[in-house]
Write a structure and sequence with these properties.
Elements (H helix, E strand, L loop, with lengths): L4 H12 L4 E2 L5 E2 L3 H10 L5 H16 L34 H5 L5 H20 L17 H16 L18 H6 L2 H10 L12 H6 L1
Antiparallel strand pairs: 1-2
């Protein structure tokens, strides 16, 4: 079915209610401004205006927060006095050399204890095990405190001078030879102490949790 021009104009004119249309007699009618304004008010416009309004609302909500942080009071200070002592580490006046500072931690009593425990532990292991004919344990002799100090000195120097293997510290090769170690200890006796170093003998009759953990 083909519509006439007048019907087409009416359809177009009445589609929005704002555009001018034909009144059926071939004359155009003017749009109603009030109806246009009313229709514009009903339009759902989503744009930057909404974002600005939301941003203002968020800012207002943020400014409405209340600070509920409690003021912390300083703890009371303890008044104490050291008397005639000075603050800081109490270093004896006679400590000048590195060995003297080392002996503040490894006292003579501690070195004596380690030496005695190591000797006793080594003798016990040799007596309770079968030693082969060519074993280095046939050449074991009890250490003295000076040797234990020398052993600890070698251990400290190994932490400074890094080599891939322990035996390399006694190597005779020119590229990795360190004369200091061989002049202080033979490699054989150093390894004997290294393998048998012992600090304390735990009684086997004590079945406490601490003893079982140490064993």
């Amino acid at each position: 079915m083909i519509k006439s021009d007048s019907e087409t104009n009416v359809a177009v004119g009445g589609g929005s209610g704002c555009a001018g249309g034909d009144d059926g007699n071939g004359e155009e009618t003017e749009s109603n401004g009030a109806d246009c304004e009313h229709d514009d008010a009903n339009l759902d416009v989503s744009g930057t205006g909404d974002i600005i309004i939301q941003g203002k609302a968020t800012a207002q909500a943020r400014n409405s927060y209340k600070n509920v942080t409690l003021k912390d009071s300083d703890p009371p200070r303890l008044n104490h006095s050291l008397g005639q002592k000075t603050n800081g580490p109490q270093v004896p006046v006679h400590c000048v050399t590195p060995l003297q500072f080392f002996m503040l931690f490894f006292t003579s009593e501690i070195i004596k204890k380690i030496t005695a425990e190591t000797n006793a532990y080594t003798k016990e292991k040799i007596a309770n095990n079968t030693v082969s004919r060519f074993s280095i344990w046939h050449e074991w002799y009890d250490d003295v405190e000076e040797e234990m100090l020398a052993f600890l000195g070698l251990i400290i120097n190994m932490g400074v001078i890094h080599l891939p293997y322990v035996k390399d510290y006694w190597s005779q090769q020119f590229v990795c030879r360190v004369p200091f170690f061989g002049e202080v200890f033979t490699r054989k006796h150093f390894l004997q102490i290294f393998w048998m170093l012992h600090l304390e003998t735990v009684s086997t009759s004590d079945h406490s949790l601490r003893t079982m953990t140490q064993n």
